[in-house]
Amino acid sequence: MLVPFDALQTLPKETLDNLIREYLFSQVEDGSFVEMGNESIQQAIAKCMMMLKKKELLVEYSEEDESIAIRSREEINRRTPLSE
Length: 84
Hints:
With 84 residues, the protein is an alpha+beta fold. Helices cover 50% and strands 17% of the residues. It starts with a strand and ends in a 5-residue tail after the last helix. The mean pLDDT is 86.
């Protein structure tokens, strides 16, 4: 199930930031994200927020395993075409 952007806006800022951080950490396999300063991390979070707003990134909730994750639109479309 996809979580609408408007619903994400109702989450506490810290919760949404942590979800985005988890996504960012999953995108960097070499551990270089750990060396980034707070300002760089905040810029990356802001960029992800814009991508969520533009629906380039989507938040998917899995009822099966009760997990939530940010995925690219392309990744989700490969599995199941979206209806707009």
